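Database export, one record per block. Field names are fixed; values are copied verbatim from the stored entry.
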Amino acid sequence: MRQVQDQARRGELPPGDVEQALGTAVAARCATTLRPVLNATGVIVHTNLGRAPLSPAAVEAVVAASGYVDVELDLADGSRSRRGAGARAALLAACPAAEDALVVNNGAAALVLATTALAAGREIVVSRGELVEIGAGFRLTDLMESTGARLREIGTTNRTHLRDYAGALGPDTGCVLKVHPSNFRVDGFTSAVPLHELGPLAAANGVPLVADLGSGLLAPDPHLPDEPDVASALVGGADVVIASGDKLLGGPQAGLLLGRKETIARLARHPLARAVRADKLALAALEATVAGGPPPVVQSLHADAGELLRRTERLAQELRVPVLPHDGRVGGGGAPGFPLPGWALRLPEGLARLLRTGDPAVLPRVHDGSCLIDLRCVPPADDERILDAVRYALGALQAADAGAAG
């Protein structure tokens, strides 16, 4: 890898051949085509980079779980035990408002399981303003209709009232669904029914209330005052809350279902639960994430702006490039539009491709004709690697420019 970069910097390798040469070098030394990337975009939960990076505790747990483990075995008496008991206990300890928990392989699977078990062949009452399409053309409507349930759409795109829900409930209602709209926003003349108002109505009619929050925040975070959390949703009356493990929770890809004991038991008994269950690696990483110290996502979210500035200015002095204010983002549909004040190195736009294909691979943000390096999601121990990567990229860019001029 470094040999390829040196050749490019000295002008011995044509710019058009650099990417192929780097790809060949990577394939020769790795058993997987997945490459580690330093996330210098300032986006914490970056979907294209696999969302949340695992904590050291979670990585250690995954390594330990890679062999034979007691995932469904009671070692004391040799009998079969409940799968994922450790992850379940960790979740319940972290979210006391939940009576029980179930872990499946991702958030979409959690929604499919909940709506299938509660409403297959019946109606799901949901506001039109919450029927969203998220990344890669994924539509919640298509997902829910695939379960055999019928959508009972109420309200309008911009306004839904409690009376709309009340008028839709009946003997054919399987569940009421409340969906966090992710990045979708309607501003102005709007109205939505909060969970603490919807919960009593659903309970009075004996209808399960499902809240799909998505982001994975277990408890309120003063840093994100408008982001919904699992504990508050349960206190507000939700029977089951759905969240993702690899977003604000900071763990592995997983779908989390937390709620009332009888409702979670109903979902766990459904045959589909076997098809979407989480594997031992995800369960191990999830338990370690919840029970261990703050994972990288939480550390990046609460990063000190002054410390970010100090680190950024040090690299800027080494590279002799300017520093400018730069707002990071949560990403992954969490806290859309909420700025995380920080700083970035401002570099020539032409460096972006060289950094992405370098060793290490660095993903910057390209904005307004510049290549921006934001250290919010970069561990301090990797600052020197960022520095080396930028130096090599600058050398390669200068060599390429010199070759073109000659």
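Remark 1: Residues 383-405 form the longest helix (23 residues).
Remark 2: Residues 56-293 form a domain with the Aspartate Aminotransferase; domain 2 fold (CATH 3.40.640.10).
End of record.
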